[in-house]
Amino acid sequence: MIISRKWLQQYMDISDLSIEELADKITNSGSEVEGIEKMSQGSNLVIGHVLECVEHPDSDHLHICKVDLGETVEQIVCGAPNVAAGQKVIVARVGAVLPGGEIKAGVIRGQESNGMICSLLELGVSPHMLSEESKNGIEILDESAPVGNEDPLGYLGLDDEILDIGLTPNRNDCMAAWSMALEAGAVLHKEVKIPYADGASAKGEATKLKVSSETEKCPLFLGKVIRNVTIKESPKWMKELLMASGIKSINNVVDISNIVMLETGQPLHFYDIDAIVAQEITVKDHIEESYTALDGVEYQLDASDIVITTEGKPIGIAGIMGGDDSKIEETTKGIIIEAAIFHHVSIRNTARRLNLNTDASVRYQKGIEPMATFKAMDRAVQLLCEYADATGLEETVQFGSNNYTPVAFHVNLNRINRLLGTDFALEEVMQVLSDLHLTPTMEGEDIHVVIPSYRTDLTIEEDIAEELIRILGYDRLPRTLPQLPATLGKLNKRQQLRRKFKSCLADLGYNEAVSYSLIGDKEKEDAVMGKEQLYTLASPMSEERKYVRSSILPSLLECISYNQARSMKDVALFEISNVYGVNEVEERLCVAASGALHKNRWQKYSVDVDFYTIKGLLQAMMASIGYDEKRILFKENKLDVKNFHPYRSAEVYLGKELLGILGQVHPVLAKKYDINETIAMEINLEVLLKNKPSKVKYSEVSKYPSVTRDYALVVKEDVKVADILQSIKKNGKLDKENIIQNVEVFDVYMGEHVEAGYKSIALSVTFQSFAKTLKDSEINEIHEKIMASLKKDVDAQLRT
Which residues, at least 6 apart from 97, have a Cβ–Cβ distance to it below 8 Å? Predict the structure, then answer.
């Protein structure tokens, strides 16, 4: 925020403070003054009158001037090309100190010179505030300039000092000079008088003007016709304030629109009334055509841009810049005023895309106070009547509403003191709240505050506490040690699960990855168990990073692709991270691996990953935290055959609740990411966290011998091995002890010697007791039960 000393002086008396003292007080209140700049610099200056100007006899560009300084006439050698007799000029006398150094008397090519005729550049005025004529020569003053005046910079309005204030994101209100003045008044404990013009725009005759909006990006639009204005030079005070703000004066009407924007923070736009013949203004989007703006540049409008139109034709890029075909010119007789609220995200996107950051667009992007639209309209009408001879006012027309409801609530001084650790007295707190224009009133032990419309950052009691401490001074905070309860340092359930899985996977040779959580359209489409609605960034860095991801797997596939493209063919990765949907957050584990998990080139030994690798990994991990195989159920994958191979993948359930999906990545998806055959798994850790695992029990190794029997069973092709295993395991009871310790499939065969439509499955069953040595009769008894059960459950026969 740029604001000058003169501007603040309009609203309060700060003559007792130097610019450095003012900057210190504002900085100590939380709004850091990042720089102090003088509009011009120079001592021992005077306004002079060039009485005589002749060419230097020994130079082709120097002139010898006789200059009347009021009390004396001095000879000055000047090299400016535009110096001439009869001019009023700024003279730096001998001994003057300028930004370039001290002025001394001297002799230039044989001619005496006592001083220097100055240009504004030599007096430290910023080049962007000057015309080309001023940059290339001395400054020529008007004929009425008083000769001998020893404050020429003040005469020109260049004696101002400028504060560059860095605002925190929550203080967008201080982008307006009025709000900045109220803030400074509260900090300095001074009375502030703001030139509000409430109701100035209410007067006016009946109007034919119609305003409307066809987009939700413009909730409020005010329009007003003023049939007659006089285009002329702006008053001196207005030009000086604009100059201090880095804005060139154009004419009184255009300057009023700029001054009101700087005062209220609300951008305005004035249209030449003759350019809007239909007396109709409509705000639209989805207009895709080229348009020439005020700067004379042709811009290509996009469907997302907000555009001001009349009769369906653009007359301005909303919130950024008006059009060249409706601008205010010397021939303008009447105007139409626009004051509106536009969606700040849309303005930001348009300004970035068009590379067109204007004073208006910056204010829209940072946010404008709800009532600024009405304040700006009132102030603009008041200034137009006063400085542009405005007549023929028509009534203000309005579309939509700002939906503003004043904020008011109670605060308690005791709670605030406890929160801050302070001992603020009621009297000083009430004074600060009054200085902040919060109209405090006592209601019992509480203080009732009413928040002004421009302080959108104040919504709760803690905000008021922050206001008190920054105004009263952070040095009022006592030096105390924090009081923290003694707690037992331990991991919560989520942290324990996360650490357990990380350790387990790292021990098995998997590397942890940390991938980017922002994704594009490609990753969005490839989500596993993705969310229907994703968070979309309001201002993404790029199209590839505009969503917050709802699945981890696409990110890991990109990691695998990156490694394989760099000759790392064997990759095993995992990541534990949050995924997001609108109003949803889940923590997930994703594992992806390709190539060999274990390899020894010397012994020509290699174990490539496959479906069973990932299935066994999950079973081992689940068992380690107390979820045994009875609670984990694998089903044929029918949920996601787009990302996973339909015949080499499975859905995983914990009880009846979906835990995740695992298996081989679909070949089409693998090709899309340019990776080799890859297996993957993504599971929802929230399912594990809300279920209760069994206690992980450990038992000693049995000291009794085990007995292994092999079975070759013939079953129909559609019989699942899982059903066979379940049928066998349920018959392992002997004297209340389960003696079937393991069942392992070691062969599946279909072909010669096996009937068509059937398959042969070979299994090895291990029997062992922890209480005794098993007898053949006992094992045979269990064997008979197993065969009977297999016949009943899956119609299995022993292969002969």
Answer: 42, 43, 44, 103
